[in-house]
Amino acid sequence: MVSDLNDKKIVRTWIIVLVLIAIFGLILFTVFGTGKMSESITGNVKIVEKEDITTIEDAKKSRNSYAYKLDKDGLFYIEMFKTKMDSDEYISEGTFEISKENYDKLNKGEYYYFKLIMNEKTKEGKVKEVYNENPVQ
What we know:
Elements lengths: L1 H31 L4 E5 L3 E4 L4 H9 L3 E8 L2 E9 L6 E8 L2 H6 L5 E9 L4 E8 L6
Parallel strand pairs: 2-3, 5-7
Antiparallel strand pairs: 1-6, 2-6, 3-4, 4-5, 6-7
Keywords: Membrane, Transmembrane, Transmembrane helix
């Protein structure tokens, strides 16, 4: 009888310890995990031809974000570029998978807003929506 009581206490203690370890691990993964995703809406992004250096240079002079369409093995992407806040240097905002329907909507030379879901570390993600006008206004 006393042995049963001790066994129950040991089992209960181990269950509590394992639950605390699981909660602590979940907190650590949430804070430091590689899968940190964020959702954002881009500013006005101009669609350009990848090889059209003149249009890209014009976009850079006016400090506009720009993107070009990519078609790789039947999957559709856009690669987006924007200026750094403190300089004129352009950096890649990331490569984003886009549905064929949204991909076909994009016309070169026009401006769009994109609702993105992206991994903050890899700068890759998906385009959820494409807008012709600012959806926030």
